[in-house]
Amino acid sequence: MTGNRIVAARSAMRERGVDALVVSVGSDLPYLTGYRAMPLERITALVVPESGDALLFVPELEAPRVSTSVEVVPWSETDDPFDRIADALPAAGTIAVGDQMWASFLIAIQDRLPGARFVDAEPLMATLRIIKDANEIAALRDAGHAADTVADQLQGIRFSGRTEQDISRIVTDLLLASGHDSVSFAIVASGPNGASPHHEATGRIIEQGDAIVVDFGGRIRGYGSDTTRMYVVGEPPDGFVAAYRVLEAAQDAAVQSVRPGVTAASIDAAARTIIENAGYGAAFMHRTGHGIGLDAHEQPYIVAGNEMAIETGMAFSIEPGIYLPGRWGMRIEDIVAVTTDGVERLNRSSRSLRVVE
Amino acid sequence: MTGNRIVAARSAMRERGVDALVVSVGSDLPYLTGYRAMPLERITALVVPESGDALLFVPELEAPRVSTSVEVVPWSETDDPFDRIADALPAAGTIAVGDQMWASFLIAIQDRLPGARFVDAEPLMATLRIIKDANEIAALRDAGHAADTVADQLQGIRFSGRTEQDISRIVTDLLLASGHDSVSFAIVASGPNGASPHHEATGRIIEQGDAIVVDFGGRIRGYGSDTTRMYVVGEPPDGFVAAYRVLEAAQDAAVQSVRPGVTAASIDAAARTIIENAGYGAAFMHRTGHGIGLDAHEQPYIVAGNEMAIETGMAFSIEPGIYLPGRWGMRIEDIVAVTTDGVERLNRSSRSLRVVE
Predict the structure, then answer these.
(1) pTM for the complete prediction?
(2) Would you state the CATH architecture of domain A2-129?
(3) Cβ proximity of A203 and A164 under 8 Å
(4) Contact state of B78 with A118 under an 8 Å Cβ cutoff
(5) What is the pLDDT of residues B111-126, one digit of tens each?
């Protein structure tokens, strides 16, 4: 499978006038080789020249754990890996660099190849990665269903009297118990903290009347889950229920608008218009969604101004929110996959406001 | 505290002829500002010009979670953050870039500043970060002691009949229970898998006679633990005990050689000579150690060829190993801190081979 992906990458390189591709930490490497590099200071790098063999440079001590069909070139602790990688790259021409490669690695390669031009490989790799095949969709579906079981199990948990960190730890345990191979994040944002979309769980003790944003995800077979559900301890705060009805309608409208041929911007607009019309426009300060796959965030981005046409096989989040600083926040998030004629929700757990103790 | 660090960074910039510093994901940012950025596609970047105010550019949706004394500049979902960051940087001159910044971010900034020269900020930042102050040493000491309790608790666990993944999960739980704020890694490499130094735990079932490398770490107040202890189920394999005596002697010799003024290379040689003289030289294919702090691996690197003089306040691992492919592997690892006249071990749990069930 990964061999075909290198063939497809070469084809995309030719279309874009790219003479060589070099990828390191991040998800391009596992996509192309099946091997994920550790994000450490010893460089692992796959070089794909326009013609000739692809070479995977790996630190000698990590070579025993590499299983791939690509030729592996170990480098030892007293080698200069950048000299060796530069030797495998063209001295002139255009070199596309994996988006998450460390800047220090790129500078070391640039210093050795002053005649080359370096471009971000993300647009090139996105042409491949943005369309998921059946195996990838199946992994995303399994991850989504596992996340749904976590959302449901949380409803049986007591929130009041516990800290955000306590609940975050419970979410982490449930993600693993539900079949995820690893946990990516477990945001628990209670009361006024809910107004911070990427809030990190604190020692704040959850109390009666708090609304709680719980946004969590992990990986199954390399592919991510990412869902947000809302919980409230007892009676919701003033105005919360009315705003929640708006948010539910906005999230549903955006999901229903998904089908091949519509633009990413139009899906964002489907949610945003409803929230704006209800008077909460300024309180929805982030995009509606992001693609998901081997990376937690990847193309397509569901954002104003992105006129990209949606295609069958894309997968992304739909996650509008309403945030009132100092009071509360709310978000509803599902992952969806684009089918030949519409959309499949990969999260099916109830999106209703869930009352907990 | 972080304000003084920016002053120190400016001083290091002037010494090196650097006109501006820009750091993003990675540990330079929390070192300078107290804020750690999420490793995602929306850039967070601190710009420190040679004179004038430092500015921290953050995605608008993450602004609520930023607490720092530096001026925060939020950018919105439809802004171009790279235009704004480039505007804050000099159009010509030398710009030092944080080592772990994404390559895509660097390329976007380079495209906007064709007259500037970009260098890796790692050597500059290392001059600051390599010497730990008393608070940093205290955090490393707390992390080390917490890791020691895990090493000891593991001796009461049954290994045989369980998978590497089972044991890795137990190590993860124990790391959190011991007071770590987060878990960084939990390597469990049993039997022949032990010969792969960075082995990822698999479904292999541990059996009688297996030697098991357990290498784990987490973070306390941002600073890491990292220790390796060896376990064996029942009788060790042939030749293992004799090799283990060599390894214990090598690790201890390297630790005892640490004091201000010696070179990093000499510490590596102290361990390596003993292992080579016993005939295992080719089986010790990695460096003896790495610095540790906000990053799991940082300067100083304890490796042949590194003639850097060791100074009071440095902290690093001493972790020689012996690896026989297809048979077994072994490693002993402690973190040490350099004192005014010698060395403090931050791991004090027994380094003996630990027999388990």
Answers:
(1) 0.92
(2) 3-Layer(aba) Sandwich (3.40)
(3) yes
(4) no
(5) 999 999 999 999 999 9
